[in-house]
């Protein structure tokens, strides 16, 4: 149960749908049962809105990636995104590589890497929701009713709750190969799972395919495991330089992205492409060699649209997606200063958003429901605010443009007195 004195507000979700549209109808349109089969059949669908880490609610005592968050999402819809990490001997459902943020596994203020733990030693560990004070997690927390579960148990519960669900399994770093191989040996999941991965550790399609082979994947994995690359625009300069580009310009960023996608398509079953887009100043031309960090950041974000347009025309069956990625929490540092935070993937510790630069603009737009679909025609959005994205999509179908705020009250720690 949530604490009575918690900083996390328990705010009930409200809908702002057009007249005559019920929440049930809206969810049915934007969270299609058996989504992969519908895509394969070429059905014309509305924008699909995938619940990012489930329907979590800090103030309600529901942690992200928990069984409760999953059940809440799949009883109301048919699509969900989860994060998968490896222990020494099996995968679990959790976002961070370390244990600190969502458990008290090692006691006061300590952290352990899941990869250093045995599966049987961590399954059953209670999930917690830490309190926040002045931008930092504290050692006060709510013990939720959920625990760490194995990926297999999580999926079996999910498909018992909703047999027609589609689950996007987000993997990171070099764990992607082992997790893709794990799925390749479990055919009961293959028509209902998408394996998401990133460009950070796999600069070419061949390098990823070889890694999956080396992880002892089933010999048919290329035709059974559906893969979904997540290409961050900020990775485009790195990809370009890996291919020998010394002087970055806009075209080099676009070519780096399209080359990476072409290589992947030649090596595996690519069902979709996800790129976070914000695109401030979208009508301005970008010319010349890029040297200023803000200019490179903005150019990469703009290049994402051209890369997705290329994929749309070159590979019509590949679905295009983006995300509404909210901050992890907002906290007041002083009576006059509030700051937005993400967390470190390895430690789970808070990291403040930068302020006053290109990243500040981009992060706010990426966190704004409805922004990405206004930039480019998308097939799906993986969203921290699925209710808002669905409502905005419903209004857009009726020719009404809605404006949303990136600030999201359920993620805002309640003000605490300052001495």
From TrEMBL:
<feature type="domain" description="GP-PDE">
    <location>
        <begin position="52"/>
        <end position="166"/>
    </location>
</feature>
<protein>
    <submittedName>
        <fullName>Putative Agrocinopine synthase</fullName>
    </submittedName>
</protein>
<dbReference type="InterPro" id="IPR030395">
    <property type="entry name" value="GP_PDE_dom"/>
</dbReference>
<dbReference type="Pfam" id="PF03009">
    <property type="entry name" value="GDPD"/>
</dbReference>
<dbReference type="GO" id="GO:0006629">
    <property type="term" value="P:lipid metabolic process"/>
</dbReference>
<dbReference type="InterPro" id="IPR017946">
    <property type="entry name" value="PLC-like_Pdiesterase_TIM-brl"/>
</dbReference>
<dbReference type="GO" id="GO:0008081">
    <property type="term" value="F:phosphoric diester hydrolase activity"/>
</dbReference>
């Amino acid at each position: 149960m949530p604490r009575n004195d918690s900083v996390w507000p328990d705010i009930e979700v409200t809908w702002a749908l057009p007249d005559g549209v019920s929440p049930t109808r809206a969810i049915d349109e934007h969270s299609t049962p058996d989504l992969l089969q519908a895509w394969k059949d070429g059905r014309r669908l509305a924008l699909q809105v995938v619940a990012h880490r489930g329907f979590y609610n800090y103030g309600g005592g529901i942690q992200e990636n928990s069984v409760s968050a999953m059940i809440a999402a799949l009883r109301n819809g048919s699509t969900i995104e989860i994060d998968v990490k490896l222990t020494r001997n099996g995968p679990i459902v959790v976002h961070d590589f370390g244990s600190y943020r969502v458990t008290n596994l090692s006691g006061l203020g300590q952290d352990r890497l899941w990869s250093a733990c045995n599966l049987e030693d961590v399954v059953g560990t209670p999930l917690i929701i830490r309190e926040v004070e002045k931008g930092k997690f504290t050692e006060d927390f709510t013990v939720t009713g959920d625990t760490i579960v194995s990926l297999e148990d999580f999926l079996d519960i999910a498909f018992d709750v909703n047999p027609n669900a589609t689950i996007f399994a987000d993997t990171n770093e070099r764990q992607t190969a082992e997790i893709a191989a794990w799925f390749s040996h479990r055919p009961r999941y293959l028509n209902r799972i998408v394996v998401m991965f990133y460009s950070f550790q796999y600069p070419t399609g061949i390098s990823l395919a070889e890694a999956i082979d080396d992880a002892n994947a089933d010999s048919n994995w290329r035709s059974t495991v559906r893969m979904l690359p997540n290409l961050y625009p900020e990775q485009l300069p790195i990809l370009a330089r890996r291919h020998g580009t010394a002087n970055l310009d806009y075209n080099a960023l676009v070519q780096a992205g399209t080359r990476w996608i072409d290589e992947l398509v030649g090596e595996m079953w690519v069902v979709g492409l996800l790129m976070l887009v914000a695109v401030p100043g979208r009508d301005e031309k970008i010319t010349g060699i890029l040297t200023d960090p803000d200019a490179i950041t903005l150019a990469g974000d703009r290049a994402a649209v051209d890369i997705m347009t290329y994929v749309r025309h070159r590979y019509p069956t590949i679905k295009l997606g983006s995300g509404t990625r909210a901050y992890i929490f907002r906290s007041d540092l002083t009576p006059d200063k509030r700051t937005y935070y993400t967390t470190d993937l390895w430690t789970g510790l808070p990291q403040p958003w930068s302020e006053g630069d290109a990243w500040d603009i981009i992060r706010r737009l990426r966190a704004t429901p409805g922004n990405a679909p206004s930039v480019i025609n998308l097939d799906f959005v993986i969203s921290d605010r699925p209710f808002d994205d669905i409502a905005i999509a419903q209004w857009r179908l009726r020719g009404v443009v809605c404006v949303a705020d990136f600030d999201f009250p359920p993620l805002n720690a309640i003000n605490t007195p300052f001495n």
